[in-house]
Amino acid sequence: MERTRTFGEQLREWRQRRHLSQLELATDLDISTRHLSFVETGRSLPSRAMVLRLAERLNIPLRERNALLTAAGYAPMYATKPLSDPSMTAARAAVDLILNGHEPYPALLVDRHWTLLGHNRAVAPFLAQVDPSLLAPPVNTLRLTLHPQGLAPHIENLAQWRAHLLARVSRDLELTADRALADLLSELRSYGGEHDEGHLPGNGDFEYPGVVVPLKLRTPHGVLTMFSTTTVFGTPVEVTLSELMLEALYPADEFTAEMLRKMASGASIAKEASDAVREA
User: Fold this and answer.
1) SS3 category, 106
2) Is 191 domain-assigned?
3) Residues 48 and 119 occupy one common structural domain
4) Residue 79 placed within a domain
5) Same domain, residue pair 94 and 47
6) How many structural domains compose the chain?
7) Which CATH number is 37's domain given?
8) 53 in Cβ contact with 39 (< 8 Å)
9) In this structure, are 187 and 92 located in the same domain?
10) In this structure, what CATH number is given to the domain that contains residue 227?
11) Which terminus of the chain faces fewer neighbouring Cβ atoms within 10 Å, N or C?
């Protein structure tokens, strides 16, 4: 059984992850370096207010702030509720509004492990291109994208897109220190292209002359070129909300925009015909 780390050990790890010396952190919080050293070595216990100040300065995610509070002997402060909880109704409505309002372009809702929690109708045609085994819950969107039986064989600029995603997961891991995310990153790297993280615009063998890293996806309708944006809740005080990400894809050219509109129109017509058959 793994030993539970003390508050001081966790604090020191977070400080080092943020590349801060004891002097820098102590100065920022207007406390003595001696006191901070005593806290890290366990010779002094911090107050609850000090734990929260340290967590805020070190930009520690809410889930890990709860762990710090517990290690220091205090009750967790931030609730963790499923999206189905009645108190999350307004937040879920906001998510659905964004997902549905983004049509005819694809949009997905994921958690910090990139588990698929929801998506709009524009995503469905792309899921048809992957092996059904990858769609068994829980569905991980990064695995779905980079797995050899997923979207990877259909991505024209796979090395570039893989590099973009791996770099992003690496940044998320640096922020959260989440072990499940570390395992996911190792799995994604095992799919091949282990040197691709150097192939970012300006760093590798090619450069993209635009302003964003594109996803170039081969489909029965032609090569669709899209770019992504990420939306998060700006003022969460609940763990689940703080970890939600809305990933929205936009067309990078007029051909892609037109094809996405046609695909959405075709899906709507097919659904109406299917509904009419069932009613008959």
Assistant:
1) coil
2) yes
3) no
4) no
5) no
6) 2
7) 1.10.260.40
8) no
9) yes
10) 3.30.450.180
11) N
Q: Print the domain residue range for 15.
A: 7-71
The strand order across the sheet containing 116-119 reads 116-119, 107-110, 245-251, 222-231, 215-219
Q: What pLDDT does 212 receive? A: 85
Mean pLDDT, the chain, as a whole number? 89
Say if residue 157 is in the same domain as residue 260.
yes
SS3 category, 108: strand
pLDDT digit string, tens, across residues 247-271 = 999 999 999 999 999 998 875 434 4
Q: Token pair of 32, please?
A: 């003595």
pLDDT in tens, 29-56: 999 999 999 999 999 999 999 999 999 9
Q: Which one-letter DSSP state was computed for residue 58? A: T
Q: Are residues 115 and 206 in the same domain?
A: yes
Note the pLDDT of residue 265: 84
User: What single string gives the DSSP state of each residue in 118-178?
Assistant: EE-GGGHHHHTTS-GGGGSSSPBHHHHHHSTTTTGGGBTTHHHHHHHHHHHHHHHHHHH--
Q: Where are the beta strands (DSSP E) in the chain?
A: 107-110, 116-119, 215-219, 222-231, 245-251
What is the rounded distance in angstroms from the CA atom of residue 151 to the CA atom of residue 209? 24
Cα 39 from Cα 69, distance rounded (Å): 13
User: Among the three residues 71, 97, 121, which one is the final residue of a domain in this structure?
Assistant: 71
**Burial status of residue 277 (CB atoms within 10 A of its CB: 0-12, 13-18, 19 or more):** exposed
- The length of the chain is 280
Instruction: Measure Cα distances from 263 to 115, 224, 269 in Å.
Output: 25, 12, 10
Q: What is the DSSP letter of 121?
A: G
**Residue 133 carries which side chain, given as an amino acid letter?**
S
